[in-house]
Amino acid sequence: MSLKYASGARCLRILGHPVRLSLLRMLFEREWSVNEMARELEISQSNLSQHLTLLKDRGIIASRRDGHQVFYGIVDRRVLQFLELMDELFCRERPSGGEENP
What we know:
CATH superfamily: Winged helix-like DNA-binding domain superfamily/Winged helix DNA-binding domain
InterPro entries: ArsR-like_HTH, HTH_ArsR_DNA-bd_dom, Metal_resp_trans_reg, WH-like_DNA-bd_sf, WH_DNA-bd_sf
Shape: globular
Mean pLDDT: 89
Number of helices: 5
Helix content: 55-70%
Protein name: Transcriptional regulator
Radius of gyration: 16 Å
CATH architecture: Orthogonal Bundle
Strand content: 5-15%
Number of domains: 1
Strand order of the largest sheet: 1-3-2
Number of strands: 3
GO molecular function: DNA binding; DNA-binding transcription factor activity
CATH topology: Arc Repressor Mutant, subunit A
Keywords: DNA-binding, Transcription, Transcription regulation
Order of helices and strands: HHEHHEEH
Distance between the termini: 32 Å
């Protein structure tokens, strides 16, 4: 298997979780603090930290410290294009009857 496909597959696995997709959508609006994200997503800070670490390790998001708070933001805005395409292809409502029109 090509190394570039292996790397792409790893990235898709990281993006393939509803919480992480929700995080990315939130972070396109603005920077969020860890406390704000945990409250908004209704998950523990520990759980949130695990998701943020995966995204940060892949270089998708970055953090900055302001006093005692840590804020997160998107590194590369092109990720939004990927999310929009994913929404268009997989997340829109399907017409009834099982057939889909392009």
